[in-house]
Amino acid sequence: MSTTIKQPEIEIAKELKELIATQTETESQVIVHINCYSGMYPTQVRIWNNVFLLCKDTGAKSKLLFSDNIAVYPQWTELKAYKDLDFTLVFENLPKECRKFDLIEQIPETGGFFFKDIQRNNSNVYSLEMM
């Protein structure tokens, strides 16, 4: 006599599925924290939506997904004299074979961000300074 064992059905709650998807997506993102210092004169800063990461090994571009604590063109963030501004940029993941990359903001005026030859790390989290 043979018996069949019925496996119980496991139902995953919608909220848990969304959490898992968010964590998986976040793990594949590149997070760049930037500290900007104004110096002795007040200034204004902003980013444009076309800022991206460029892999030096493959030429692949990772587009900006999210920014926090900085204005996006055409708005400006005011920065008082001798003050810091810390902001965060979140990009699509870089290819696995990427060892170095540039952060580039190609804009139709002077003053775009450019950080050259950033060494890739295992965490995909970077801290940069802009004076």
In short:
With 131 residues, the protein is mainly β. The chain has one helix at residues 14-27; strands spanning 30-37, 43-45, 51-55, 61-68, 77-79, 84-91, 100-105, 114-119, 125-130. The protein has one domain.
| Major β-sheet strand ordering | 8-7-3-4-6-1-9
% residues in beta strands: 35-45%
**Counting H and I runs of at least 4 residues, what is the number of helices?**
1
**Head-to-tail CA distance between termini:** 79 Å
Chain-averaged pLDDT:
86
Q: Give the overall silhouette.
A: globular
**Main β sheet profile:** 7 strands, mixed
Question: Helix/strand-derived class?
Answer: mainly beta
Order of helices and strands: HEEEEEEEEE
Describe the structure.
- This protein is mainly beta.
- It has one domain.
- It has one helix at 14-27; strands at residues 30-37, 43-45, 51-55, 61-68, 77-79, 84-91, 100-105, 114-119, 125-130.
- A 7-stranded mixed sheet has the order 8-7-3-4-6-1-9, with no helix packed on it. A two-stranded antiparallel ribbon has the order 2-5.
- The longest helix has 14 residues, at 14-27.
- The relative contact order is 0.26.
Layout of helices and strands, plus pairs?
Elements (H helix, E strand, L loop, with lengths): L13 H14 L2 E8 L5 E3 L5 E5 L5 E8 L8 E3 L4 E8 L8 E6 L8 E6 L5 E6 L1
Parallel strand pairs: 1-9
Antiparallel strand pairs: 1-6, 2-5, 3-4, 3-7, 4-6, 7-8
Features:
about 10% helix; mainly beta; seven-stranded mixed β-sheet; 9 strands; two-stranded antiparallel sheet; 1 helix; about 130 residues
